[in-house]
Amino acid sequence: MYTSTIMFELLPIFFPDPKKNNLPLPLYLPYMPSDVPPYWHLNYAAHALINALAVCFLIAVDGSMAVSILSAVYQIRSLKQCLLELDTSAEIQALHRELVFIVQTHVSARKYIRQLEKLNAVNLLVIFCFICLLLCMGMNVIATDIWSPIWFFLVAALFKLFLLCYFGNRLIIESDTLADCVYSIDWVSMPLSEQRLVLIMIANAQPALEMNGIFMPLSMASFLSIMKASYSYYTLLH
C-alpha cells in the first residue's frame, strides 16, 4: 500500500502538469526557481524526501496499531484453544488451576484491549474523519477528470481504512464467539466452585470486545458506512 506512493514521484513522467512545473506536488523550495535545472532537481528531491518521511511515519503508526489489534485477536483465539483442550475429567486441583489461569488470561486480554482502545480512540476518529473528507474531495476531482492521478491516493487511503476495519472486525468476531466456546465445555460435570469460574468467564465475555473510534467501532460495518457517507457528501457538493 505505502510503496504505491512512489507513483506520486512518477507523476511528472506520466502526468506532466505545467501548473506545478512538472513536479509531483505544488510545493517549492523558497528563494529559488523551480522550473530550471538544477533547482528543479532539488525541488524534486525535496518532494521525494517528504514522501519517504510520510511513509515511514505512517508505517510506524498504522503498523503498530494493526499489530496490536492482531495481538488482541490471537489472545482471544488462544483462550478458545485452551478451553477446547480443557480436560474436565482431570483432578479437581489441576482443573481449578487451569480454569483460574484461563480466567486471569481473559481478564488481562480485556484490560489490554481497553487500554489499546483508550490509546487509539482519537487516532481512529481522525482517520475516520480524514478519509471520509478525502473521499468526498477526491471524487469531486475525479468527476471533472476521470484520469486524475488522485486515484492512487484514494486507493491507498481506502486500503488503509479497510485493513484496520478488517482487523477490528476480526476482534469482534473472535470475542463474540468466546462465550459460546466457554458454554460448550462440559461444565455441568464440574464441581460447584469450578462452575462458578465458568459462569464468571461467560459473564465477562459479554458483550463482544471491540475497538472504538469514539463515535463508531472499528468494523466492516463502519467501513461501509464511511463509503456511503462519502458518496452522499459527494452528491451534495456535486
From TrEMBL:
InterPro entries: 7tm6_olfct_rcpt. Keywords: Cell membrane, Membrane, Olfaction, Receptor, Sensory transduction, Transducer, Transmembrane, Transmembrane helix. GO terms for cellular component: plasma membrane. Its main location: membrane. It is found in: Cell membrane. It is a multi-pass membrane protein. Pfam families: 7tm_6. GO terms for molecular function: odorant binding; olfactory receptor activity. It comes from the Eukaryota. One of its GO terms (biological process) is signal transduction. The keyword Membrane applies. This is Uncharacterized protein.
